[in-house]
Write a structure and sequence with these properties.
- With 684 residues, this protein is of the alpha/beta class.
- It has 12 helices and 36 strands.
- Strand 25 and strand 26 (500-505) form a beta hairpin.
Length: 684
């Protein structure tokens, strides 16, 4: 047993007072003379014995009452097995996981409601003089300061669910920094209480600090068995959406719950009008794709929403995205001395949907290189430095350049081209009869080119090759080999560059060197290159990840600034803009907290819509076993029973051991009551 206030033990000297009172009985006896007292001898002897016993009992009760009263002031306690000497100041960090997964139903309402209630109980278990640090997933600057208990209780009540999601390791690192900020007293203790459902993603402890001075306490909140169906992603069946032509949106649904669901309604809304509706069942833990057919009648930007109805977790029931429908697709071909390719002219020049321009290299219009999704450099022997500079700017901004090599390239010019785009130098033309041996059918370029569910035959009829450049001889940079020759050399290779890409064909587009322009693969490959990106879904921004989005080709003149607005509720911010080699990137950081489609404007003129969605990592509600979380920590941690009906008492016992002062007061009152009873009930 130990004492919080051992100085009060000096009050035991007060025990001498009742002893002295009993030793020196100051009561005066008056003698009464009787004529004969012989018959009273036995009565007097009995009365003295009873009086002596009564006085001893009263003395013992008084001594015990004073003893336990002194002990109550000294505050004795039985220290816990891991408890150290009580610190002069205690600093307590409380993390309330306010991610969207905490909206799941628990035993007493939502898990977030339970977390707020438990956080209040934890704060009330400590002294009002202790310091508190509230941590939420928002990582607000005001929550990085230590406050008193009353202010901490106010902040706890104000915690609301939000889109931010943090791992437990990140939270512990921030809690450690906040607890140890400022001036530290000579004797201080640190405690961190983590209140969460400990999803599999949240339970990541990789960034947890190895600091044993902070005692970690885990309170796992358990949700009821919930079937959460959410929209994972979606994509267009065809990479291009033409006006008046039917298309399909493929929506990927997931059920992360433990129960199957039936007849989940899925809706597609474009520009405020419902375009498609489907109802599908979904097994527990399964993924399923839903096809929604639609037709677009008006060109321009399309703001779309895919939504479903599912409770109680609803943040992931909508998916916002945008895409652009063009009236035509511009294609530019720059030709060398061999002239225009009849195969390219036949493919693009006869279709009114393609605005095809074929020009000799000496008359190349550089202004035409700003908007087309595909530029073809067709057998140009010696591209000029000015042309290479414009092509580099075009690709960096997100364009696609297809390089069709000439039979006799100018080595100096192509060395400059290779240096600009970090490409393999063509080298010497290898005149050897072979054929394409492998096609990367899993690449998006070949999506829907081959029949679904069937593999290529063992001996497919692939293009013949009589001459090719060895593209892999001079470069080890990352690339995607889309088509490969039988000897392993690349035939069609894609290189990322800036925000765009460069595609290099190993053979000139001439039947003398390859049968590819006459092969059935030529049309779908070239069309996919031209149409890819023309109407594809613009990648939405995930809230909370800090990623930016392209501002497009617009350059801001003078002191004009970008505005990100949402007219429906008056939202208007000035995002950060960074100019880079590929154009410009806009960053909103934590300014956007609600999913939806916003408008990027300059002088109230729409440049492009931008969609924001919540992070789908919160959609998987499956928890991590608490023992696994403890093992992931680099420091010891204890698990607090979140279902305990008396959580403050349990925390107090864990921190300070078993407090005995209350029992001392009860015993002191008991012995005072015994004294009163002895005085009043036992007569002498």
């Amino acid at each position: 047993m130990q004492f919080l206030n051992p100085q009060f033990l000096f009050a035991f000297f007060a025990l001498a007072i009742p002893i002295l009172v009993h030793l020196f009985n100051f009561r005066r006896y008056k003698k009464v003379l009787f004529t004969n007292v012989r018959f009273l001898q036995e009565i007097r002897q009995d009365t003295q014995n009873r009086s002596r016993l009564r006085n001893l009992l009263i003395l013992a009760s008084r001594l015990l009452a004073v003893t336990f009263l002194v002990l109550a002031f000294a505050q004795p306690y039985l220290p816990a097995s891991t408890a150290a000497k009580r610190a002069a100041e205690r600093r307590v960090a409380i993390w309330i996981d306010n991610s969207f997964s905490m909206e799941a139903q628990g035993s007493y309402g939502t898990l977030l409601d339970e977390a707020r209630k438990k956080a209040r109980e934890i704060a009330l278990a400590f002294s009002p003089s202790d310091k508190f640090l509230l941590v939420t997933n928002d990582f607000e600057a005001r929550h990085q300061h230590l406050v008193n208990r009353d202010e901490a209780l106010q902040w706890i009540d104000a915690v609301q669910a939000g889109p931010a999601a943090r791992s437990a390791g990140e939270v512990l690192l921030r809690a450690r920094d906040g607890l140890k900020s400022g001036n530290l007293p000579a004797s201080v203790s640190f405690d961190a209480y983590l209140l969460s459902d400990f999803q599999r993603r949240i339970a990541d402890m990789a960034s947890a600090p190895a600091d044993s001075s902070v005692k970690v306490h885990l309170l796992a909140l358990k949700a009821n068995a919930t079937s959460n169906v959410f929209i994972d992603t979606c994509y267009l069946e065809s990479p291009v959406v033409q006006l008046g032509s039917p298309n399909e949106l493929i929506v990927s649904l997931r059920n992360s719950g433990e129960k199957p669901v039936e007849n989940i309604p899925v809706r597609l809304t474009i520009n405020g009008y419902q375009k498609a509706l489907a109802s599908v069942p979904l097994e527990a833990g399964a993924q399923q794709e839903v096809r929604l057919a639609f037709t677009i009648q008006n060109p321009g930007w399309q703001e779309a929403i895919v939504s479903l109805t599912d409770y109680p977790v609803t943040f992931d029931d909508t998916f916002h995205f945008t895409f652009r429908v063009r009236t035509d697709v511009p294609i530019v071909a720059i030709n060398g001395s061999a002239g225009a390719s009849p195969y390219l002219d036949a493919l693009f020049g006869r279709d009114p949907y393609f605005r095809y321009r074929s020009m000799p290299v000496g008359q190349a219009d550089y202004n035409a290189l700003t908007t087309p999704p595909l530029v073809i450099l067709n057998q140009v022997e010696a591209p000029s430095s000015g042309l290479l500079q414009e092509l580099e700017r075009y690709v960096r901004k997100g364009g696609k350049l297809m390089l069709l090599p000439p039979t006799a390239p100018n080595r100096e010019a192509y060395q400059s081209l290779a240096q600009r785009f970090d490409l393999p130098f063509p080298g010497t033309l290898v005149e050897q009869a072979t054929r394409v041996g492998k096609v990367e059918t899993n690449d998006p370029l070949f999506r829907d080119v081959f029949e679904k569910g069937k593999a290529l035959p063992e001996n497919p009829d692939l293009p013949l090759v009589n001459g090719y450049f060895n593209l892999s001889a001079a470069s080890n940079r990352r690339s995607d080999v889309l088509m490969r020759l039988e000897n392993g050399s690349p035939f069609l290779q894609r290189f990322p560059f800036g925000s765009g890409q460069v595609l290099v064909l190993a053979s000139p587009l001439d039947p003398q060197y390859t049968s590819f322009p006459q092969h059935a693969l030529f049309v779908p490959v070239m069309l996919k290159m031209a149409l890819s990106g023309s109407s594809e879904i613009d990648p939405p921004v995930v809230i909370g990840q800090g990623a930016g989005f392209s501002s497009g080709d617009t350059l801001l003149p003078g002191e004009q600034v970008y505005h990100l607005v949402r007219p429906s509720d008056g939202f208007d911010i000035l995002p950060e803009f960074r100019q880079n080699e590929s154009g410009g990137t806009v960053y909103v950081h934590d300014q956007v907290r609600q999913a939806g489609t916003y408008q990027l404007q300059v002088n109230k003129q729409l440049l492009r819509p931008v969609s924001f969605n919540y992070d789908r990592k919160e959609s998987d509600l499956r928890p991590t076993e608490i023992d696994e979380v403890v093992r992931g920590l680099q420091v010891p941690a204890d698990v607090v029973d979140s279902q305990s009906p008396d959580l403050p008492h349990a925390i107090t016992r864990a921190q300070d051991g078993i407090q005995l002062w209350k029992y001392c007061i009860l015993l002191a009152l008991l012995f005072l009551a015994i004294e009163v009873a002895l005085i009043r009930l036992i007569r002498t």
